[in-house]
Specification:
alpha+beta; 3 helices; rod-shaped
């Protein structure tokens, strides 16, 4: 038999090993990309938690009588959180981080006595809602935290 007439081809074990290596590479690629998506979602939630925590800390350190609209009117912290008062305003309802725009809404309510709805018991509830639209899914995400603030003076 002449050596020039021998045809070269892949053997079955060579093909199986190639298919196995490609499957391993595709599996690793899927795992890595899903991990990136998960870390982006965690980053978005971390920003939302930070915005909510900022609002809670500011409210807890503010004078009790200036917290809500019912007590302080338009000079309240609640109004300040939910509006923009010029370029130097540091507490704004909208925050941009990368390609994500967050909107924070703060509601502060006075808790009244159960027997007399006109008498305050020295306790207010604060509810902070942070909303954003995920750039990956286009789905609206919401993070809500509630707490209470007591008049300890």
């Amino acid at each position: 038999m002449d050596r020039t007439s021998i045809k070269k081809a892949y053997t079955l074990p060579e093909l199986l090993i190639t298919i196995l290596l490609m499957a391993i590479l595709f599996t690793l690629a899927i795992i890595l990309t899903s991990g990136f998506d998960h870390s982006k979602k965690l980053r978005d939630y971390n920003v939302a938690v930070a915005l909510a925590q900022q609002a809670l800390e500011i409210a807890r350190s503010s004078p009790y009588d200036l917290l809500d609209d019912e007590t302080a009117g338009s000079n309240s912290l609640e109004t300040d959180f939910n509006s923009v008062n010029g370029d130097n305003d540091l507490i704004v309802p909208d925050y941009d981080s990368g390609f994500v725009k967050y909107h924070r809404n703060v509601e502060i309510r006075d808790i009244k006595a159960s027997t007399d709805q006109n008498r305050s018991i020295g306790l207010k509830t604060i509810k902070v809602t942070v909303e954003w639209k995920s750039p990956e899914t286009g789905k609206k995400e919401v993070f809500v935290v509630s707490s209470s603030i007591a008049d300890i003076n």
